[in-house]
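LAB NOTEBOOK - FOLDING QUEUE
OPERATOR: T.R.
BATCH SIZE: 2
PURPOSE: Compare the predicted C-alpha cell outputs for two unrelated chains run back to back under identical settings.
PRIORITY: normal
REVIEWER: second-year student, initials M.K.

ITEM 1
FIELD SEQUENCE / FIELD STRUCTURE:
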Amino acid sequence: MKKSSSVISKVLKKIKPYSGYLALALLSAIISVSLTLYIPVLTGQAIDNIIDKGNVNFENISRILIYIGVGVAGVTVFQWIMTYFTNIVSYKTVRDLRREVFDKFNSVPLSYIDTNSHGDLISRVINDVDAVGDGLTQMFLQLFSGVVTIAGTLVFMLMIDWRIALVVVILTPLSLFVAAFIGKLSHKRFARQQSLQGDISSYVEEHVGNQRIIKAFSYEQRAFDEFEKYNNELYDVGFKAQFAGALANPSTRFVNAMVYAAVGIFGALTAISGSLSIGQLSCFLTYANQYTKPFNEVTGVLTQLQTGIAAAGRVFEVLEAENEFPDKQDSSSITDCRGDVRIENVNFSYTKDKPLITNFSLDVKSGSHVAIVGPTGCGKTTFINLLMRFYETDSGSISIDGIDIRDLTRDNLRKCYGMVLQDSWLFSGTIMDNLRYGNENATDDEVIAAAKSAYAHSFIRRMPQGYNTIISEGGGNLSQGQKQLLCIARAMLTNPAILILDEATSSIDTLTEIRVQKAFAKMMKGRTSFVVAHRLSTIKESDVILVMKDGNIIEQGSHEELLRQGGFYNTLYNSQFANTDC
C-alpha cells in the first residue's frame, strides 16, 4: 500500500498545473451536491403538507414542486460542468504523460531500449497511460462529489437529529475497512495484469513483424501455442483481479444496507415518540442513502482505480529510469570536421563480468579507408556503437580532430557521421521524406542526385508516384535491396566527414553492388571511412584492414600485407573461396 500511495502522490504532482480546472470542478461539485441535498428537505416539507385525507395544502406542494424542478435542473447542469472539467484534467494529464514517456525514450541510454522488450515499452506509452487516464477520471468524479456529499449530508443530518446522525457515523466506517482490505488483496493482481498486458503486446509485435520467418519455418501453430500461454495467464490473472475488485461493491452495499436499516428503525422509534415528523424521517432516510452512496460508488469503480494505479506504477518506472550521461555544459564543438579519429586504451563491456573490448587503440588519419573484419561477436558493431557514442566506454578515450568525443554534444558529434547499417530502417511516409531524414534542407535536385549516386533513382522512378510514393511502415512495400539503396542515398545526402558502413550492401545484387561500391569509392575520397564487412572481397582496396578477435585488434595492415603474414586474416579470406575450415 505504501507503493500505491507513492504512485498516487506522483500522479497528483503531474496534475498540479491544472489545479485551476480542479477548483472549478470542485465548485461545481459543491453546488451540485448542495442542490441534491436540498431536494430531500423540500420533499419532506411536501410530505408534511399532506396532513390527512382531504386535508392537503396543494398551494404549498405546487410551489415546492417548482423548487424541486429547478433544483433537479441545477444538479444536472453542474454535474455536467464538473464532469467537463475533470475530463479536461484527465486528458491533459494523459497527454503530458504520454509526451513525457515518448520524450524519455530519446533521453535514456540506448542500452535501456536494447534490454527492454519493445512491445512492453509500446504498451506502457499507450495502454498504461490510457489506464491512468481512466482511473483519474473516475477518481476525480467520485472524490469531488463523494467528499462534498459526505460532508453535506452529515451537516444536514446533525441539524435534523444528532442522535440518528451518530448511528450513521459509527456504522459507516465498516464499509471503509472492507474496501481497504479488498483493495490490498487485489492490488498485486492488478499490477500483474498490467505487466502481462505488456508481455502480450511485446509478443504480438514480434509475431506480426516477423511473419515471413514464421511462415517460412511453418511456426504458425507453435507461435499460436505460445500466444495461448500468455493469453490464458492474462485471463486467469485478470479474472482473479476483477473478481477480487468486484467483491468490494456488494460488500460495502451490505454494510450500507445495515446502516439504512438502523436509521429506519431508530428514526421510526423517534418519530413515534413525537421528536421527529414523518417528513423529517423521510428526509433522514434519504440522507442516510446519500451519505453511504459515495462509499458504494468508490468501491464500484475500485477495479478501474486499481488498474490505473498499477498502470501508473509502470509508467513512472520508465519516467524514473536513469537518463543518458548528459552532455557537458561547456561542450566543445566541431564546425568543420576533418575526420581524424584516435582511440586510446579503450575498454568496454555490456555486462561488467564479461569484458568485450580490452585495451583497444587505433589512430586513423583523415581520409583513410579503414575496414574492420573478424568473426561474429568479436566487437565490430560494438566498435561502431562506441564511435557514435551510442554506448559510453568503460575507460580510455576516443577523439575526433583531437577533441574527446565526451567533450562534444552528441548532436554535434553525430553530424560528423553518415551511417548505413545492415538493418535498413525506413519510416511511414514518402520516399522523398525518407531520403531527407538526415538533411531536411536538401533541395529536390540534391535528393535526386544522391539517389542517382546510390543507383536508387531508376527503381524510384518506376514507383506509382515516383519520389512521392508512400512507403508503408518499415518499408514493407519495397524489397530488402531497394530499402538498402534508399538508406545509402540518405547517408550520401548528409555529405558526412566520416562514413560508417556496416554490411551496407549485404542485400543488394552483385551488379548493383559493384556500382554502389564505385559510388562509395567516389564518395569516400577525402573522407574517413569505417567499413564493417563479412565479404572480404569488397575491402581489398582499403588503406588499412583491422582484424578483430575477442575485442582486440590481432592483425593490422593492407590486404596484401595480411595475406603475406599468413595469419588469421589469411584464413578468413581463403575460407570464403575454398573449402577450408576457419
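ITEM 2
FIELD SEQUENCE / FIELD STRUCTURE:
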Amino acid sequence: MSEGESSAIWADALRVARLVAADPHGCGGVVVRAGAGPVRDRWLDIVRENLNPGKPLRRMPAGIAEDRLIGGLDLAATLVAGRPVAQAGLLAEADGGLLVAAMAERMGQGTAAHLAAALDTGRLRVERDGLAETRPARFGLVLLDEGIGEDEAAPASLTDRLAFHIDLTTVPPSAMRPVLRPPCDSLSPESETPPHGGAPSGHDPVAELSEVAARLGIASLRAPLLALRVARLLARLDGRAETAEADAREAARLVLGHRATRLPEHESAPGGEPEEGEPSPPEQAPPEQREPGPDPEEGTGQASEDRIVEAARAAIPAGLLAMLLRDGPRLRMPRAGKAGAKAVSARSGRPMGARPGDPRRARLDLIATLRAASPWQGLRRRAEGGGTCLMIRPDDIRITRFRQRTETTTIFTVDASGSSALERLAEAKGAVELLLAEAYTRRDKVALVAFRGAGAELVLAPTRSLVRARRGLAALPGGGGTPLAAGIDAAGQLALGVRRGGGTPVVVMLTDGRANVARSGIAGRERAGEDSLKAARLFREADVRAILIDTAQRPQDSARRLAAAMGARYLPLPHADAGAMSAAIRSARE
C-alpha cells in the first residue's frame, strides 16, 4: 500500500475517533481491525484526548465474568452489613463514555448479548443474587478485533449496532502525524451551503440515506439510522441546525461503505458523457432565454442520491470491492473449534455459571457459594445467638458448570456404483480432501464409506491425516450395483460409534436415491427401494444430523423421499464441482 493510501486511512481513522468521542452512544461505536502495536495505541490515545472531561473510558478484558460485566452482589459489603448490597458492573461504570473490548473476535455469545441489549436500550437491568435494579448504561463500544483472516471476526450482533469500521492493519507508524485537538468546525466536511443556512432544496437525508443503503444491498435497518445520526452529528459540530448534502455524503462514506454487499447501479450520470448507443441530451437555452423556475442543474433529488452513492462506493474496502466485482460475497469460513456440538462437562471446558450441587461430583464455586450465603448471615447469627463465624448451609453450596464443544466427524457416504462413479466419484474425492484440509483449524475428522456391488465398506476410518485420506481415496474403485440400504446401515453404525466415543457425527450422503440391490444382496429395484426406506427410518431414530446430496443430473423424487425418511437436509447439486460441493456441505453442516 502506498504512503498516500495509508495516510488517507489514518485520516479517516482520526475523523472516526473524534466523532465517536463526541457522541459515544449515538454512534454506537467502532470496530477497529488491528493487532496490538503503536498505531492502535496512538488511535486509542486520540480517542481518550477527544473525550469530554468527566466521560469515562473503561477497558473490558476478554474473559470477563458476568457479575463483573453487569454487576451483582458486593460480597465484601454484604458480609459486613448482613444484607444484600449491590455493586455496579463495568457496563454501568462506562455510562456516558466508551467501553473498549479487547480480543473481540473471541467474545462469547453471552457477553455479546449483554452488550447488544445495553446498546439498544441505554439501560442495564440486573436481576440476580436476590437483587433487582436498573442502572443507566449509555455508552459507546470500541471493539478491538485482532482476528487473522475472514474466519475470525467480532460478533455480527455487535458490529451491526456500531456505526464505524476501520482497518489499521496496513497503516505503518510512519503514516501517523502529530495531531492536535481541532476546533468543532473542522470535524465536518466542507459544506456546499452557508455555515448557518438551511438544507438545500429537495434534500431529504432520511430518504437519501435509506435509498443509498438499499442500492448497496444493505439489509439491516440500523445502517441508515446510524448514518443519519452521524450526518446530524457532523452538522451539529459545524454549528448548523440542518444537515447538508455533504454531511450525508460523509456519513454514507464512513458508515455504509464497508457494509456494502453489492455494487450499486448507475441510475443517472449527471454531467457525464452519454454511453454508446444512447441519445445525446438536448441542448439547453442560454440563461437569459430560460423560463423562470428552479434550475435543473442546481441538483435534483436523484442527482443528490447518486453523489452520496458514489461517496459510499469510494469507501468500499479494496478486498471487499474485488470480491463484489468478481462473484459477490463469499460464505464465511467456519471458525476454529466451533464445529462440534455443545456438551455439558463436570470439570473441564468453559465456565458457564454456577448452580446448586454436590461438590464431591463437580468443582466447588467458592465465590458463588459465599454470594448465596452472605445475605442470610445477619438472620442466622440472630437465630444462633450471635457469633462472628460465617455460617454456610448445604443449600448455599454452588458448583461450577462447564461446557465444551465435542469433536465433529464428517462421514461421507458415497454411492460408488457404475453410473454414480462416472458422474460424481471424482467430485466426492475432491470435496473430502478440501474439507480434510480444514481439520486442524476446525478440530474435526473425516471418514469415508462407499457402497457398491453387494454391500458397503469403510474406505477411510475417522482421521485427520491427509496422507491416509489421499491413499484411501486413490484406491476407491467404482462400478457395480447400488446397495443403498447397506450404505445407510454402515453410515449409521459408524455415526453411533463416533457418538459413543464422545464426538459429534455428521453424515453426508451422495447418491441419486435409486437403489437396485437389496440388503440380502439380491438385485431388484422394488425390494431394494423398500429396504433403503426401512434403513432410512432406522437411521432417523438414531437422531444423527445428515445431509443428502442428490448427484443425479436432474433432482430425483427418490432422493427427496429418501432424505425425508432419514430426517436429512436435501441438497440437489446437478452441476457442482468439488469446490461447490464442499462449500454446500460446509454451509449445511453449520
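REVIEWER COMMENT (ITEM 2): The longest strand covers residues 455-463.
FOLLOW-UP: none requested
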